[in-house]
Amino acid sequence: MRQALGRKRSAPAAAPPVGAEVPVLPTREHWDETIHRALTGEGVTTVFQPIVDLRHRRVVGYEALTRFQSPDGNAKAPDRVLAAAHELGVGQQLDAVCLRSALSRRSQVPKNCFLSLNLDPESLHCPPVRKVLASQGHLGGLLIEITEHRPWDWDDLAPVVRSLRADGARFAVDDAGSGYAGLKQILQLRPSILKLDRSLVEGVERDETKVSLIEMLGMFAGRMDAWLLAEGVETLAEAQRLVDLEVPLAQGYYFARPETSWAAIDPAADGALARFSQAPTDTLARLLDPVATVNQYDDLSAGWAESNEPWMAVVDDQRRPSGLIDSEAGFRGELVPTLVVGVHLSPLDVLGRLSNAAPEPHAPVIVTDNAGRYLGLIHLRRLLAAVSGTDSGH
Question: Which domains does the chain have, with CATH numbers?
């Protein structure tokens, strides 16, 4: 049964702003000038985002990313600049400029790290891009990411791939699982790395369907002697779940943002992952989803409106939990009862307690530290997977 939750009177919500300025879209002439400058190398900068070995918490590569500036000095969205260049018929020339900018730093890549470059299949055929690649001599240490924004014809692509591979380059498929490259095309390319799209990584710690798909892609990659690389990792919970799933490589803002220098892993992220990796595998610590909380004395409906989570934990001023809210309970100001357990327990212990409790069906379990303070939630499907031995963290 859901119980009403008393709360302090809260201030009325502020009215939304009115009369906000509507941004003016760039004119065709504005794009022409930006692209013209870029074709000469002006306003083009390459930044590098580290690629991390999750198991050993070390940087093993860098992805080269292009940044553009308009004549007035403002940053321009790279995808929009490149798309506009292709519409103007100079896309391949601009691809070559971006590639040349990235490769100008090749000699500075840290030892034992590879450099990853984004190219679509059409660009691999074009003379300006081939000329830049040919100027590099041996291509060892370079990873060419085939983008999936459009399907490719393997009969046309195969000779180029064979030539570049013979020169030492390796290949990756970008955004695997979300783009045009089907399993047949991936099998034809036989990449060294399959990159998991951000849409698969986001919220993976609480989505067992995504977990199943990542496990399937991991098995598929292993049969091809390829590695998975999860991109767009933004939270500790996502990184922890990927570690448990034995995804070997990852990149994203959680580890480091793209920089013009060769960035290292953020020390806080490194420390958090180190502590997680050292945690015993037979306790609840490795199953936690550190979902945000709302104070029981605050306006629950306002707190819920600001959240994208399916559940939120309700806590007091000492972060001691009193229950959960979901979309319905949050707006009604009610608590959803659930089991509260200590982090020292094993998954099997928790299942035993669940069988004797009467929580809301499908409600996650609240986990606390030894002082009774909230740590996070564990979803029933994850708990069952851990007990059955199908969870990769156990």
Answer: 28-278 (3.20.20.450), 284-388 (3.10.580.10)
